[in-house]
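User: For my dataset I need records formatted as: sequence, then structure tokens, nothing else. Please produce one.
Assistant:
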Amino acid sequence: MHPLDVVKTRFQIQRGKTDPTSYKSLGDSFRTIFRTEGLFGFYKGIFPPIMAETPKRAVKFFTFEQYKKLLGHASLSPGVTFAVAGLGSGLTEAVVVNPFEVVKVSLQAKRNAFTEQPSTFVQARQIITTEGLGFRGLNKGLTATLGRHGVFNMVYFGFYFNVKNIIPVNEEPTLEFLRKFGIGLVSGTIASIINIPFDVAKSRIQGPQPEPGEIKYRTCFKTMATVYKEEGCQMSVEQQNTSQLKSLLAVSAYSYTLRMIAEVSGFIQRIGSQNHETWPRWCSDAFGL
């Protein structure tokens, strides 16, 4: 999924079709990156999201459950509760991941060969040394990141859980998996499209500025206004496609992981319900011994 993230960032930081470094299409971006930067060019900035993934997911789902419990004391409908809890979890998640995003975007924006690129830690140290830890340094673009994650989680969780409760559960495991997968896919696609303005603003703020030494993109909503004034509000087909492909892959991986966890959990429960003397037979059946 990371190659799509690199392409998405490249499209977001290019300034319209008048930008001499702009890609003509999604296919052109893949061909150009592969030709000029090599295969590893698609994996620039991969270590920050790897390092952030575990705390990001933990914060996201833990805070969602906590906000949901807290909102349970208010007289809100289940639909509003899920959406507001999703918004809260997204805002909390954004605070955790933003420094990693700053480093990631700065690495993804570089068009030199992968072997010529500084390491993640060198890049982070350079940002801290030259720009500091504040909102102009390692935490720049925080408002845009808050908007991106907050809006995405609000739409995703609000739509997913409400629609999931409306569509009847299917007793057949495969059809039930497809039901959840389909709802998750639609939820992720809608959320990705809605949060793109915040995502573009984040990339512009955290990425390289058009003129060295001059900060053109500084705040979230001012950046949105500048982009709208200079480039219009129409989202490029390539950017929409990369966002939807990322959603598809993410939902696929998430749904498949949940299914595997459920199967393993059921298997462990079946083992636990058996007498200890029958464990060797269960192990033989499980691993084909």
